[in-house]
C-alpha cells in the first residue's frame, strides 16, 4: 500500500503530485527546487544557496518519512547549466558521507520549473 508523505517544512507541491510516496521501505521523493517553505519565495541569490535550500527541502521530506540522508539510495540532479556542477556538488557533498554516498546521475536540461538552476529528487529506503 502506498503512503503519501507531505510536510509543511518543505514547499507545497505546485502541481498534481506529492512531496514523496512511500511503499514498504522505499521512499520516492518528487524533485525539489529552492522554494523556501516558510515564505514561498525562491532562493536564487547564488547557486550554492539555491542548492542548500533544495537539500534542506529534501531533508524535511526524508524526516517526515522517518529517514535521513543516510537512507538515500539514489539521487537525480537536474541542472540548467552544467557549468554549475562543481558548486552544486560542493554543497551536495556536505549532506553525505563520501564512503556511503548514494548512486547518482546529474544531467543538464533545457529548462526547470520556475526557471530555477537546480532540481533534485531521491530514492531512499529504511
From TrEMBL:
GO terms for cellular component: cytosol. CDD domains: YjgF_YER057c_UK114_family. Pfam families: Ribonuc_L-PSP. GO terms for molecular function: deaminase activity. It comes from the Bacteria. Belongs to the RutC family. This is RidA family protein. It comes from Halomarinibacterium sedimenti.
Amino acid at each position: 500500500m502506498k503512503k503519501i508523505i507531505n510536510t509543511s517544512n518543505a514547499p507545497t507541491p505546485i502541481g498534481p503530485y506529492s512531496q514523496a510516496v512511500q511503499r514498504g521501505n522505499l521512499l520516492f521523493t518528487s524533485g525539489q527546487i529552492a522554494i523556501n517553505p516558510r515564505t514561498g519565495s525562491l532562493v536564487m541569490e547564488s547557486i550554492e544557496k539555491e542548492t542548500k535550500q533544495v537539500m534542506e527541502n529534501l531533508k524535511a521530506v526524508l524526516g517526515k518519512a522517518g529517514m535521513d540522508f543516510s537512507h538515500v539510495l539514489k539521487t537525480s540532479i537536474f541542472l540548467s547549466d552544467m557549468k554549475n556542477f562543481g558548486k552544486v556538488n560542493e554543497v551536495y557533498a556536505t549532506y553525505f558521507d563520501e564512503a556511503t554516498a548514494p548512486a547518482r546521475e546529474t544531467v543538464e536540461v533545457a529548462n526547470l520549473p520556475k526557471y530555477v538552476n537546480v532540481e533534485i529528487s531521491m530514492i531512499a529506503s529504511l
